[in-house]
Amino acid sequence: MNMSLHSDTAPKQTAAPAETASGGSAGEGLSERQQEVLDAVLKLMVAEGDGFSVAAVARAASCSKETLYKWFGDRDGLLTATVRWQASKVRTPKLPQDQLTRESLKAALTGFATSWLTVITSDLSIALNRAAVSHAGSGKSRLGEIVLTNGPIAMKQRLEPLFLAGRAAGLLSFEDAGEAFRAFFGLAVADTQIRALLGEDNRPDATEIDTISARAAQQFLGLYGQG
Questions:
Q1: 54-63 pLDDT, tens digit each
Q2: Is residue 67 domain-shared with residue 107, that is, in the same domain?
Q3: Disulfide-capable partner of 72 in 21, 77, 180, 221 (CB 3.0 to 4.6 Å)?
Q4: Helical pair 123-134 and 32-48, crossing angle rounded to 10 deg
Q5: DSSP state of 17
Q6: pTM assigned to the model
Q7: Domain that holds residue 107
């Protein structure tokens, strides 16, 4: 049964684990109430950056500080869960039940790129990444490390099974999956995220994202495709 927005009686759950190569979503380990709390954190970061307090989160989410500490531990735990929750919104490509074909591989790559670009160009992701960059190397926050682990590293873990399945089916040829991921990252993301982080207002809309994603998948198959 769904918990109401003002209820703090949801069963205790720890922050969801990091993304795994099997494609599990970090959001699956969170209750609806916890997801609402993490959405409140994201909205605070859009408005104020990452200088918020646990007390501010409690007020914004209409819950107690004790509940936040019980669910997420300290402030770093809350930040980690927030980043994982946002990253979980990128849909993991599902391997087809039948034999993988070039078309189904292309569709899976296109769908992943579309979801990825949609998430990372959102106001919520931009706020997270700006905060992470602002503290990089300062020792003030672990946010940069958290974003790196649950951003590019997690995306690589999600795509590797698809790359390996493509190679096993004779559709892809590569020696190192990490190198293949970096190539796909460059084709799909390119400078889109950097331009958004630097404040460019003209972010790609849904139609442009679809076009970029389809082109990236086609170019990737041109580089690594077999047959």
A1: 899 999 999 9
A2: no
A3: 77
A4: 60
A5: P
A6: 0.78
A7: 102-224
